[in-house]
Design a protein that fits this description.
Helices cover 34% and strands 0% of the residues. It has 5 helices and no strands.
C-alpha cells in the first residue's frame, strides 16, 4: 500500500527514478529448491526430458526452447 511515508510511490516508480535505498542484497537457493532460472546440476538428460510428463501437450515447445543434449546442459 502506497502510504506516502513508508512507501511514498510504487516500487516501479521508485526504481525508475533511482530513489530506492542502496543496500546490499543476498540471494540464493538450496539444493532441491524449486524455481525457474536456477541451475540444477544434478538434473540428467533423462530427467529433463521427463518434461513430457510435466508439460503434456506443451512439452515439445518446452524442449525446443530449452534443449539439453547432455547432463551438463540439462543442469543449467
Amino acid at each position: 500500500m502506497i502510504d506516502g511515508h513508508l512507501l511514498p510511490a510504487s516500487p516501479n516508480d521508485i526504481f525508475a527514478q533511482g530513489k530506492q535505498n542502496d543496500v546490499p542484497e543476498l540471494t540464493g537457493c538450496n539444493k532441491g529448491d524449486l524455481g525457474g532460472g536456477v541451475p540444477h546440476p544434478d538434473t540428467t538428460v533423462e530427467a529433463f526430458e521427463n518434461a513430457r510428463q510435466r508439460y503434456g501437450d506443451m512439452s515439445c515447445a518446452f524442449l525446443k526452447i530449452y534443449p539439453a543434449g547432455s547432463d551438463a546442459q540439462a543442469g543449467l
